[in-house]
Amino acid sequence: MHDLVIRGATVVDGTGAPARTTDVAVDDGVIVAVDEKAGAARREIDGDGLHLLPGWVDIHTHYDGQVTWDPDLSPSSWHGATTVVMGNCGVGFAPVRPDGHGFLIELMEGVEDIPGTALYEGIDWQWETFGEYLDALERMPRAIDVVAQVPHAALRAYVMGERAHEDPDDNEIEQLAKLTEEALHAGAVGFTTSRTILHRSKHGFVPGTSAAPAELLAIADAVRRAGHGIVEIVSDNAFRDPERQWMVEVARRTGGTVTYALAQEPWDAHSYRQALADAEQLHAEGLNLVPQVSCRPTGMLFGLQSSLHPFITHPTYQTIAHLPAAKKAEELRRPEVRAELLAEKPGTTDMIAIALMSRWDQMFPLGDPPDYEPAPETSVAAVAASTGRQPEEVALDLLLERDGTALLFAPLASYVESNHEAIREMITHPRTVLGLSDGGAHCGLICDASMPTYLLTHWVRDRTRGPRLPIEQVVSLQTSRTARSYGLTDRGTIEPGMRADLNLVDLDGLRLHMPEMVYDLPAGGRRLVQHVDGYVGTFVAGVQTLANGELTGERPGRLVRAGR
Ligand SMILES: [Zn+2]
Fold first, then answer.
1. pLDDT of 122-138, one tens digit each?
2. DSSP letters for 238-285
3. For residue 298, what pLDDT is reported?
4. Is the pTM here over 0.85, yes or no?
5. Do the domains spanning 2-54+507-554 and 56-297+415-487 agree at the CATH topology level?
6. Residues whose CB is under 5 A from ligand 1 (ion)?
7. CA of 366 to the centre of ligand 1 (A)
8. Any idea which fold 56-297+415-487 has?
9. Ligand 1 mean position, distance from CA 96 (Å)
């Protein structure tokens, strides 16, 4: 008698093999049979007409704070994620000295747009070392599995204190390397660092942003000594020398994977091809420099409740910024307020912010259902041109829709040609890995934890502006490919002996809702979330955590310690 049998679903097993209709049997949290006729079970589920897939493995999230107070890890858990990797982009909360909490919170708030008040209220600092952080995570039952990485900025703050933004001396480099090794031994899956000028807090760039190769190579040697460890990097110039040179050397020294964020650059639309070709070439030499890519453009969502939109720094807007969305909309509809606002300019000198707020050809109504591959003629710039209005007027009218809760989709990158063809090239390339959902982060501006769902709704089923992709391929990309790239060998496929992390999906009924702003973080902090219909069941180690879109309250998830 099995614990669980799901009968007659269309099984897409995550290996890339053709979908087939079969039974799947589970005992003790592990898949024991993938068979046309599995024996009886204590619980049997009729999968007829449904698809059964491995649980999603999302390697790029920022749940480092939320993971300490929220056992559910929504919205990722609503979208079929059964394993999430956090600690990306060099930021996180361990190791930390007792007087260093505020600094790491402010860093996370500045870089990842997670409300500092929520982090102050939500985190119960039961740790100082990285190992103690993992112990604290392990004590908490949770819906899905979490995997941690050790972030460079926290290491720097721990070792160098107030000098975290400066260059470490030899002794400090040795400390950074030693603590990295300790964290990996404790179970971190990797080390992460930020090299981008886009990631800033009120303290400046992320500590380590301009770290010299000597420091990074010392850390690479620590990774090799530990015996395992991914190195994750977010950089503005990852595949160009001189940045590329030390990254290749890190890959050589660790013998493992170095993964970095890759997107189509607005200023150099085809440079990603150089990165892909380079990854291919290095792979042939036995080096894994793996571009991490996403299945839709990283999309800023501009709305009257968001942390950025075209009018957010305008003096007139500032006077109503504290109001709820509907009230703001009401005010902004008053002719005199509207006229005043539209006569103003942004009240900031931050050139990056000004640029982001006025890319009218890269702003589109998101709509419902949300459209992440909108036609170029629907951009704010195009509508303004075709109707003889100013783009500001068009943008304002769109923001006022739905009682002030409508959203504008403003792709940051990978939408240079106003379609997803560059993305298709990147995600189907044999040397890339899917990531960059940033689950748990950018709470006031981005909600991409739904990216795994989008693989099915858009890439398999709905796409009209270019070719779709076979379900077998996209499922393998977000399951076995992501899991293997992070050394998680016990999950990611539906095969005997693998963990029973499963998604039972109604492919026809799968529907992404419009993202919405909710105020449910600790201290009433806000975050964008996105609901979804069509996940009939999610199972973590054979235990059902999600039933028809609702979390069941079961907590089979745990901390996964790498290298054990
Ligand atoms: Zn990130």
1. 999 999 999 999 999 99
2. TTSTTHHHHHHHHHHHH-SEEEEE---BTTBTTHHHHHHHHHHHHHHT
3. 87
4. yes
5. no
6. 88-89
7. 23
8. TIM Barrel (3.20.20)
9. 20
